[in-house]
Amino acid sequence: MGNTEDEYSKQNIDDFSSSKTEDEDSSSSSEIQDPFDPTKIDITVKPLIIDSLIKRLKSKPMRIDLNTEFQRLGNLWKEDAQSRLIESLLVKIPLPAFYFDGTDENNWKIVDGLQRITTLKNFIIDKSLTLTNLEYLKQYHNKGFEGLPTFLQARIEETQITACIINPGTPPDVKFNIFKRINTGGLILTPQEIRHSLHQGIPADFVRELAELEEFKTATDYVMENAKRMEDRDFVARFIGFYGGYDTYQPDLDSHLNKAMSRLNQLSTDERNKIKHDFIKALKASYEIFGNDAFRKRYSPFEKRKPVNKALFDTWTVNLAKLPKEDIRQLILRKDRLQEKFIHLMNTDKEFEKSVTSSTGDIRSIERRFSKIANLIKEVLAC
Asked: What is the pLDDT of residues 120-162, one digit of tens each?
């Protein structure tokens, strides 16, 4: 019987991938260029019994956050997988370590172990789970927690687990890297899900607000209307990350976007409204110029449409956001010429094509694609 979250999960979690946005080669996007000081890693490893987790779940308000969006949803496991976890406890198979963000001592956020904790809650507290398809203890088929003998109830409650607590004061960049390193379960967290968890409040709310704009949905042809894994918010975060200027970029991409979200806390309401206004302006312009072809590679006017491309999204939106209204009006009037020049660029400049295809977080790729699109816009406006 397996005892890792990956084994319980791999047949029980939906495929969250999207074929409507282009898979990105991020081979250099997430490589750390400026490693953090390892002495800033502050994790306490301590033994707990399951009953201590149950008490946190029973307290009002609950002292374990089961709704951390970066961890997606609880209850992704089917009953068979949940039952096997309970059976593991009953036959004394150890569970993997649980990881918590302990920034708020009274409200731990689950970093790794959400499905396991949800299973315990379902079985012991909510009593919504009855055991099924057991491998060893078949005599307890269809039994709930209260249907087990007292000594087995106690065995579950007194099972010792390992809890790894990321302590308050751990810098966001360090915490981000910790989250990625321990994110090895059946549902791998995306960088945006981690960013969302680390930057609750104004940053997370602002990114969500922009991702929910009708202009964003229209410009991306509604391919992310029901986006999973926060893919839509990842697009928005890239715009915010480069809005202040691509020339200030320092790799890696994950750290750059993480810092950009953190800076949102320092901006005034008027400054955030200016970002939102310019984002809407860029989205409207993109749609007026390219229609449902916006942010997609194109090598011929007649070829089949390709998926939405993240690198083209951040490049076009940031460049257009910086233009005055009159320049945008002129670009819309000359959209046929702009489209022709973009197709020509895709066909003749292999370095530009590479910059929106592979290693898109590499500093040379970013400089190349932003400058090339900026020059393309200048050429069309000068005609």
From this structure: 999 999 999 999 999 999 999 999 999 999 999 999 999 999 9
- Give whole-number Cα distances, 372 to 325, 345, 352, in Å: 21, 9, 7
Q: What is the CA radius of gyration of the chain?
A: 24
The answer to whether the bond into 362 is cis (omega within 30° of 0) is no
Residues whose CB is less than 8 angstroms from the CB of residue 174 and which lie 6 or more positions away in sequence, other chains included: 36, 37, 40, 41
> What number of residues does the chain have?
383
Measured CA to CA, the distance from residue 366 to residue 354 in angstroms comes to 11
AA letter at 348? T
pLDDT one-digit tens code per residue, 330-355: 999 999 999 999 999 999 999 999 99
Tell me how far apart the alpha carbons of residues 277 and 283 are, in angstroms, rounded to a whole number. 10
In the three-class reduction of DSSP (H, G, I as helix; E, B as strand; rest coil), residue 98 is classed as strand
In 3D, which of 352, 230, 308, 376 has the Cα closest to residue 19? 308
165 forms beta bridges with: 44, 100
